[in-house]
Amino acid sequence: MSSQKLDLSPLLTYLVDCHEGDLLSLIQSLSKTIFMLHFVPMDTFSDLERQNVCHVLMELKEAVTQVYLTSEKAP
After folding, report:
1. What is residue 3's predicted lDDT score, i.e. its pLDDT?
2. Which of 6, 12, 44, 61 could pair covalently with 30 via S-S, beta carbons 3.0-4.6 A apart?
3. Which of 19, 27, 14 is nearest to 68 (CA)?
4. Please, what sign has the CA dihedral across residues 14, 65, 7, 37?
5. Number of compact structural domains in the chain
6. What are the contacts of 46-51 at 24+ separation with CB within 8 A?
7. Shortest CA distance to 34 belongs to which of 3, 56, 66, 2?
């Protein structure tokens, strides 16, 4: 990754527009998505593709959860 600052405003706009700024809502949606992926027919994706997609979503969910927990502790 380059040393340039990332513009995360599209992600923040999505959070506000689709989840009304509620990180817990986003976390719940990610959890449901991960759960639902287990019910996609097995021949739709290879085992490795399914594993990789679930891993990315779990990492995203953990990062958002960390932001949520940190913001809850802030005064």
Report:
1. 66
2. 61
3. 27
4. negative
5. 1
6. none
7. 56
Which pTM was predicted? 0.79
Question: Is 17 inside a domain boundary?
Answer: yes
Q: Where are the alpha helices (DSSP H) in the chain?
A: 9-19, 23-37, 47-73
What pLDDT sits at residue 75? 67
Token look-up 């700024």 returns 21
Buried b / exposed e over 4-21, threshold 16 CB at 10 Å, is eeeeeeeeeeebeeeeee
Question: Please, are residues 27 and 64 in contact by the beta-carbon 8 Å criterion?
Answer: yes
Determine the structural domain holding residue 22 and report its residue range: 9-73
Residue 13 lies in a domain: yes
